[in-house]
Every structure is written in C-alpha cells, then in structure tokens.
TrEMBL record:
This is TIGR00341 family protein. The chain crosses the membrane at residues 115-134, 140-160, 172-196, 208-227, 234-256, 262-285, 306-329. Keywords: Membrane, Transmembrane, Transmembrane helix. The keyword Transmembrane helix applies. Pfam families: DUF389. The keyword tRNA-binding does not apply. NCBIfam families: TIGR00341 family protein.
Length: 330
C-alpha cells in the first residue's frame, strides 16, 4: 500500500474524500484548512486502487495550479488489512504495484544525460575492455553491473507506451551518447592494445545464435516486470543477463584491431539485444496496462502501437535471418 496525500483548495476536500472512499482507500484522514485555504487529505490506498484514484484526482485538480499530490511508501501498517485468499490473488494478478506516475519518476532517471552518466559509461567501458582483453569474467561482470546503458533503452519503450515524445527524445539521445561513447573508447583501446583473440569473453560476443535472441527477449521482459512489480533490485541481475556493454566494447576493440569479420558478429549481437529489449519492454508495458491517462492520448498511442511493434518485429525478423544466414556460411 501507499499513502496518497492530496494538498488542494479546501473546496475540493469533500470530493477528494469521496473519491478515496469510492476507489477503495483503506483509511482516510484530514486536517483543517491552512492559511492559504488549502487542505491536506491523506489516504491509505492499496495497489489495485491507486492508479484509478490517481487518474481521478488528476482529472479533478488539473486546473488547480496550487494543488499537489504526493505518493509515499508504507513499510508497515496495523491493523493488517483483512482479505480473502481469492481477493488477494486477484489483486496480485490485476495490479501494477507502481502507478504510471511512480514508474515515470523512476524510469525517467535512466534517461537523464548528465556527467554521472557519462562518467559511468566511460569507466564501465574501460573496465569491460580490460576484462575482455584479460579474459577475466569477474571483471566483465563488474563492468556490466555498473554500466548505465540499459536504463535509457527501457525509458524509450516506456515513453512510447505513453506517447511522451519529450521523454522518448531524451532517452534516445542518452542511449546514442552512451553507446557511442562506449564504442569510441573501446575502439581507441583496440588501436593501442592488440585484441586477444584467444579470450573466451571476446569470442563469446562474436558468436550469435537464436539462444541470444531468447535470452534478450526474456531479460528485457523481466526488467520491465521487476519495475512494474515494485522490485527494482531485481534489475541488477537482468542488466547482467542482457548487458549491452560487452558486445559494444568487443565491437569497438575488433574495429580498432582491424578484425572486420569478427566485428560483424559483435555488431549483430548488439543489435539483437537492443531490438529485443525494446520489443519485450513494449509488450510487457502493454500487457500491464501502462497507458496515457486521457482517452484522446490513448487513441493517439493506439494509432502508433501497431507501427511501433511492427517495426521492431520486422527488425527482429531481419536480424534472425542474418543470424541464420551467417551460421550457414562456411
């Protein structure tokens, strides 16, 4: 559950309280109006009721510039809420533990392009290149965990689900900067340090199969499921599973070393990971009911939904064809 706190003009207090009760708030309490004639209403809201309540509050208060809605987490509450096992199971199946607004606040951070992102991308590339050259799997995994490249990819898919062009643009720029920086640094590394072609970690990123496609799809879906279920800590394992950094680093190192035939495999693996994460993330967001609030925005998103999914399915089909063709070549 969460505490939804509404600070709005006092004339809306009865409507806010009524909304809380209508949408299933477990408890509601409020204080007297303040000097600025705003009143605070707090509600203890279960997961299943939070998104409908948030949508209703935004529709009520969208013209009130002094209004504010704050969502706070709850570690524990007594007495415990009583519900039947069937009701609890239904809530788990239907509810997204994080509302659209909570998801936006968390996911949008991954699309932020600042010096911390640039430094993390640079340092993780250096660590990955050293680990790949030394064939040290522990170092490579460390670089995969600290690399920030997966965040903007998921942010782009989330923005497409909401039709948010601003967030989509920021996520796209951040992704291109991160991948471009990793490619440039690893290319420089390959120019000054001969590529170790006996390294298993390097060769593993040049051999692409259908198993890599399945892994990337499953990992992209798991990343979004962990976010929408309120379990962001699970993202660490997902980032390791479908890391974008190692194939990017291997691609740059091989290009710097002039090994074009092997660089094709690394480029193919990187493309597969990006396309699969975007496609899986979009499908999971769609299945979880993450969509714009108003019907007009939903209509616009529906119009672009088929085009978006069709584009990435087509790209994935082309990549699978390239994988099969490459495997058939002697």
């Amino acid at each position: 559950m969460r505490i939804v706190e509404v600070i709005a003009p006092a004339r809306h207090a009865k409507e806010v309280i009524g909304m809380g009760r209508f949408y299933g708030a477990v408890d509601t309490w409020w204080g007297p109006p303040s000097e600025d004639q705003r009143q605070c209403v707090r509600m203890l809201v279960p997961d299943a009721a939070r998104q409908p309540l948030m949508d209703a509050l935004q529709s009520l208060l969208e013209s009130e510039h002094s209004a504010r809605v704050v969502v706070s987490s709850v570690d524990a509450t007594l007495p415990r809420q009583k519900s039947t096992e069937a009701e609890a199971q239904k809530q788990k199946q239907e509810a997204v533990s994080a509302t659209r607004e909570e998801l936006y606040s968390e996911i949008a951070q991954g699309a932020r392009l600042d010096w911390n992102y640039v430094l993390l991308a640079s340092l993780s590339t250096v660590v990955a290149a050293i680990g790949l050259a030394a064939d040290d799997v522990a170092v490579v995994i460390g670089a995969m965990v600290i690399a920030p490249l997966l965040g903007p990819i998921i942010a782009f898919a989330f923005a497409a689900s909401l039709g948010d062009r601003s967030l989509a643009g920021r996520a796209l720029v951040t992704s291109l900067v991160g991948l471009g920086l990793a490619l440039l640094l690893s290319l420089c590394f390959g120019l000054i340090w001969p590529v170790n072609l006996s390294s298993h970690e390097v060769l593993a990123r040049t051999d692409v199969s259908l198993a890599n496609v399945a892994l990337a799809l499953a990992s992209g879906a798991a990343a979004v499921l962990s976010l929408t279920s309120g379990l962001p800590t699970a993202l660490v394992g997902v980032m390791v599973a479908v890391a974008l950094l190692p194939p990017t680093s291997v691609l740059g190192m091989l290009l710097g070393g002039g090994r074009w035939e092997l660089a094709v495999g690394a480029a193919l693996l990187l493309a597969v990971n990006v396309v699969c994460v975007l496609l899986a993330a979009k499908i999971v967001f769609l299945g979880k009911g993450v969509r714009p609030r108003t019907w007009l925005e939903r209509a616009k998103v529906r119009q672009s939904m088929a085009l978006y999914i069709g584009l990435w399915v087509t790209l994935l089909a082309l990549l699978i064809g390239a994988i099969l063709l490459r495997g058939a070549l002697p």
